[in-house]
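Quiz preparation item.
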């Protein structure tokens, strides 16, 4: 009987997780995720490093174009830089997620950007969640020091 109850509970959790992505509003101009914000006063992502300066952190609004989103449930996204590298954006306490159709959209987010070092294990986890091939994941063999943003809210601009 306990096994049956356990399996039933596991099935309910799995179904709820599968529905989480379908309940996310599709990305369109003006749609917000997380904390309700507007686009005014945002710093362009390409100017962010200047804003961070020697403090190694910046709190405020940042604008950028989404180039990748977590394929499992939208638990992270990446914003495009001029140099071709992408900046990781996570969401405060996993309180909200992004829809799959947000790739290619310009967004403004509000939160904290910080220079951090990401471990090989974490980089491989992100690559797996992003749907990368096993060969691509195995090529990750060194930690990466870069800007990581933790957003409280996101608004789609265009």
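Solution:
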């Amino acid at each position: 009987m306990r096994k049956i109850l356990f399996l039933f509970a596991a099935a309910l959790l799995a179904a709820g997780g599968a529905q989480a992505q379908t309940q996310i509003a599709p990305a369109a101009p003006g749609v917000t995720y997380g904390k309700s914000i507007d686009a005014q006063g945002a710093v362009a992502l390409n100017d962010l490093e200047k804003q961070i300066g020697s403090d190694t952190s910046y709190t405020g609004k940042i604008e950028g174009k989404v180039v990748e989103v977590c394929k499992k449930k939208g638990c992270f996204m990446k914003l495009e830089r001029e140099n071709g590298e992408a900046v990781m954006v996570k969401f405060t306490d996993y309180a909200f997620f992004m829809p799959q159709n947000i790739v290619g959209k310009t967004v403004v987010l509000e939160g904290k950007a910080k220079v951090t070092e990401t471990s090989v294990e974490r980089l491989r986890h992100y690559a797996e969640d992003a749907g990368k091939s096993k060969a691509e994941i195995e090529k990750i063999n060194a930690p990466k020091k870069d800007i990581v943003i933790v957003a409280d809210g996101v608004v789609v601009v265009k």
